[in-house]
Design a protein that fits this description.
By secondary structure, the protein is an alpha/beta fold. The protein has one domain: P-loop containing nucleotide triphosphate hydrolases (Rossmann fold, 3-Layer(aba) Sandwich). It is built from 9 helices and 8 strands. The structure holds 2'-deoxycytidine-5'-monophosphate. 2'-deoxycytidine-5'-monophosphate is lined by residues 14, 36-38, 40-41, 100-101, 104, 130-132, 180, 184.
Length: 227
Amino acid sequence: MNARKLIIAIDGPAGAGKSTVASRLARKLGYINIETGAMYRALALKAVEEDVDFESESALVALAERSHITLEPTTEGNRVLLDGLEVTQRVRERDVTEAASKVSVHPRVRAWMVARQRQMGKDGGVVMEGRDIGTKVFPEADVKIFLDAAPEVRGDRRFRQQSTTGNTKPAAVVAEMRARDQRDRTRPNSPLVPAEGADILDSTDLNIEQVMERVEALIAAKQVASS
Ligand code: DC
């Protein structure tokens, strides 16, 4: 295998399987995995705690500037620290999930995040996942994958994963997810779209092993092409 340390970008909507693929891939390649969504979630949590208006871009940027958000890559995903306190579970809860979707529409909040994400991935050896990694954070990434799946399948996966969402009905999870997706896909700044040159992978009818096989084949093909 090529020894050069790649930058691998994985984008796509919630529930497409990005985090699972990114952490497995990182483990396999000996890379770190960065879940950029957790950074937006950590800032959203701080906004919830400090009662900052999700509509106020300047207040959110000021909040970000006095926040210490750290992602610690582990084999099971990212440990999330906010101002030194572990918030890994807390940021997955329903109120923070909703807030993160609102906080992340603001261009200056995004610019603040993107600058940090570029710093975290600049040396390569990274699998970075989110919504704008291939379009904005690392348009020059060695491998760009857009992982998608049908909304019902994504909602169902989320429902199974999250006993902490506060929802009891899968239909409610799907409805909330669709609303957040719509916000991600239609925001003027960095909407969720496949990056130029991205390989689109639909995981609707695939299990995780099959997704991994395809992802690894894509990476191998890029490595052959660039060697
Ligand atoms: O991937 P996730 O569900 O943890 O992301 C949380 C929110 O942050 C989601 O509403 C989309 C947003 N996000 C984003 O706008 N850009 C990213 N690179 C990652 C996440």
